[in-house]
Amino acid sequence: MSVGFALLGLLEHGPRHGYELKRSYDDQFGHGRSLHYGQVYATLARLLKNGLVEVESEPGDGPDRKRYAITSAGVTDVEQWLRKPEQPEAYLQSKLYTKVVLALLTGRDATDLLDIQRAAHLGQMRELTNRKLTGDLADQLVCDHALFHLEADLRWLELTAARLDQLSAQVRKGNR
User: Which intervals hold domain Transcription regulator PadR N-terminal (predicted)?
Assistant: First the structure.
C-alpha cells in the first residue's frame, strides 16, 4: 500500500496533526503493522514538497504545532490513484519455486522442503483464522485476502509434490 495515498485520503476528512494521521492510519490499515512516526513525517514532508498538502499552524501554549491539510492537487491525485487498477501479480518466479528447483539441482530432498513449507503455510492460516474471529470487519477482510493467497500457495505445493518426479527428471536433463 502506498502510505502517501493513504495519508492523503485520511486528510480528506479534514486537517490533522502528524500524530493524528499516524493513529488513524494504524487504526484503519496498520493491523499488526503500524507506521513509525518517522515514516509519517517523512511522507508528509514529501507530500508538502510536491504541493499535495499544505501546513496550517495552530497557535497554542507551546510552540506552534503543524496541522496538515490536503490541497486540491492532493484530492485529484487520490482520485486518480483510486481509479487506477492495481497490476495483478502473477508470481511467475517465486522464491518457493526457486528453492524447489535448487533442492533438486543440488541433490537435496525437495519433498522435505515442500512439507516444511506446507506446515508454515498451515500455521499462518491458523493464526489468520483466529485473528478473523476476534477482528472487526476490516480486519476480517484483510485476513480473508491473505488466506485466499495462502490457499492458492497450498494448492501449488500439492501440485508440485505430485509432479516432483517429473520436475526432477527435467531439471537433471537440463543440468547436463
Answer: 7-77
CATH number of the CATH domain containing 65: 1.10.10.10
pLDDT tens digits, one per residue of 117-173: 999 999 999 999 999 999 889 889 999 999 999 999 999 999 999 999 898 888 777
The type of residue at 170 is Q
- Give the predicted TM-score (pTM) of the model: 0.67
Residue 52, phi then psi, degrees to nearest 5: -95, -20
| 34 and 104 share one domain | no
Q: In whole angstroms, give the CA distance from residue 26 to residue 112.
A: 39
Q: How many CB atoms lie within 10 A of CB 52?
A: 24
Report the interhelical angle of 137-162 vs 164-174 (nearest 10°).
Answer: 70
The dihedral formed by the CA atoms of 82, 83, 87 and 88, expressed in degrees to the nearest 10: 90
Please tell me the total count of domains within the chain: 2
CA distance 155 to 146: 14
The burial class, CB within 10 Å (0-12 / 13-18 / 19+), for 56 is: middle
What residues form DSSP beta bridges with 65? Answer: 58
